[in-house]
Amino acid sequence: MAPLQRVAACLFLVLSPVTVLGQSSFTDIEPAATPVPVASVAGAPLQESEILQLTDAVVKRLVDDDSISKYAEYFAFDDSDVASGKQARRAASASCKTFLDNSSWPKDIIWKLFDVLLGGALIPTKPVAAPCYDSQWGKKDSAKCADVTNNFTNPLFHEADPTSNMWPIFQGRTCMPKSDTTGKTCTLGAYPEYAVKVTNVAQIQLAINFARAANLRLLIKNTGHCYLGKSTGAGALSLWMHNLDQIDFLPNYKGPGYSGPALKLAAGVTARQVYEAADKNGVTVLGPVSWSVGYAGGMITADHVVAFQVVTASGRFLTVSEASNPDLFWALRGGGGGTFAVVTSVIIRAHPKLNVVTAGWVLDASTNSVDAFWTGTKKFYDVFLDWADAGVYSFFIMGNKPAPFLTMIKLVKPFFDYLDANNITLSKPHTSEAHRTFYSAYQAAWGSNSFPIGLDNSLPANRIVPRRNFQEKSNETFALIKEHVNAGRHLLGYHKTPKKYANTDNAVNPAWRECALFLITSSDKTLDHSTPEGLAIANKDLQENILQPWRDIAPVSEGGGTYLNEASVMEPDWQESFYGSYYPRLSAIKKKWDLTDVFYATTAVGSERWVVQDGEQGVQTQNGRLCRA
After folding, report:
1. Which PANTHER family match (predicted)?
2. Residue 319 lies inside a defined structural domain of this protein
C-alpha cells in the first residue's frame, strides 16, 4: 500500500464512531489523531503510527470549541500558550502524584473526553486474574480462572494483556490466580487505573499531556517483562505500547553516522520478531537472549542504534540522533528506560549473515566425584577469557540439586581433552550443530527455552563481574563461585568480551565494557516469600549473604556493577551500581528534558526524588501512591 493510501485508511479508522467507557458521548468531537506529511527523518520514512500525530492545530480546535474549551489545557503541549506554565506550577506544588481519593483527580467527563480524543483507546484496568474471584469485575468464572492459572507462566499471555506484569511481587500480589479464592479479594494494587492501547503517536502525546496536566502517575508497558515492577504503579495511567509492531527493512540506509543495511523497529516488537525479520532479509542483528523481551521498547543494543523517534515530556514528537538532540541520544542508549521520553521507533544497524555453531553439554557430580566436578569446573573458568576473546558466547547454569552441576551451550576442544586426561565424565555428552544463520542458531539454543515468569517465590538479583577478576584474583573469584553453589544457590551466567564498535560513546554502564562474567541469581527459594514478613527476611538474606560477597569481590570501583533488569529492586548505592560514573550526567539530562518528572520508574534516573508509599510489603513494590521523597 502506498504511503498516501495508508494515511487514508488510518484516517478512516480514526474517524469512526467512538464509544466512551461504555456510553456514547461527545459525538461531535473528532479524535485528535491527524495525518502529517509522510516525511523522511533520520534517513527513514515515518512509520504508519508516526504519521498520525497531535498537532498545534488540533489543540487550537479544542480551545475554540466552546463546549470543551475549559478542558483544553489537559491536552495541550507543555510549551504552548494554553498551558502557559500552569501545569508545571501545579506539579511543583503537589507533594504526591494525583490519586483516586484526591479532589484533583480528573472528573469523569474529562476522562470521557480524553477517550474520545484517543479514538476510543482508553481501557479501564481489569486484573488478569479477576475471573478467579467474586469482585467488582464480576462473578468468579472457574473455566476462565483455570485458563489464567494454566497460562500465568507464559510470557505471551501477559504481553497480550494491557496491564499484566510478569513479576507479580512488585504489583503487590493483590489478585493472583488461584482455584480456591473463598474469602479472598481481588483489587488493583499496583495495576494502573487505565491503559491506553497505543496505535499511533497522537495517543502517546495526548496521554503524556493529560498525565502532566492532571499530575497523574504515568507508566509505560510494552510486554511487561520487568523484574522490578517498572510497568506497574497504583493510581496510574499506562501507555500499552505492544501493538506498535511495524518492522521496516532499509537495505540502503543513509543516516546520521551510518550508511548500510538497517532496520526501523516500532516500539512494540519483540526480540524474536526482530530476529525473524533480519533473517528473512538476509542480515543479522544483535539483541537479547529471551525471545519474549521487547526490543525497541525494551532491550536495545545501544551501540548499534542510529536514531530514535520519541515523544518527550512536553508532548512533542522528536527525532533523536547524533545530529539531532545528541544529549538525549546519548542518554537513551543505555541510560535506562521509562525516564527520558517515550520511544516510538528505533533505527538499528544490521550486519551480514554469519555462520554459527551451537554446542551443549552437562558436567555434574552424579557421574564424577565432587572433587572431580570442581576440578573440571575450575578448568572452565581458567579458559573463560580465552574463549570469550575467540568469539565464544556462552550461557550456562550452575547449581547443586540433586548434585552440583554445570550446563553449557558452547565450547571448544582443549577443554574436553583436559576432562579426558583427568578422567572427568560429562553426564550429558558434548554435541554441536553448525548453522548457516544466526537465527537458526538462536532458535536451536535460546529460542526454544521457556524462561520462567509469573512466579512469586523469589527475588531476582545479578552482578557484572569484570575481566580483572579472572586475571588478578581468579582464585578468590572461583572460591566465591564454589561457595555460592555449595550453599545451595543457583547461578545463571554469561561470559563475553564486549567489542568496541561505533556509537560506544553512550550511557551504557561502564561495567559492561569490562564484563567477563554476568551472573543472575535470586533469593533463597526455600525461604517463605508469601508474606511481607517472609519477603523482608528473604530480602535481608539476599542483600547480606548472597549479593554482598559479589559486591565485595566486584565493586564498582574495580569495574563491577549491576544490570538494570533481573536486579534487586533494593540494590544499595543503586545509582553507581546501575549507571556507574555516568549518573550525574544522566541526572542533568533528565532535569533538562523532564523538569517536573512526568516520567518515573523505580531505580530509574531521577527516581531518588520520589518514594512509593506502599506500607510494609517486605520489599519495595509499586502498590501505593507516588510522593516526593
Report:
1. FAD BINDING DOMAIN PROTEIN (AFU_ORTHOLOGUE AFUA_6G12070)-RELATED, GULONOLACTONE OXIDASE
2. no
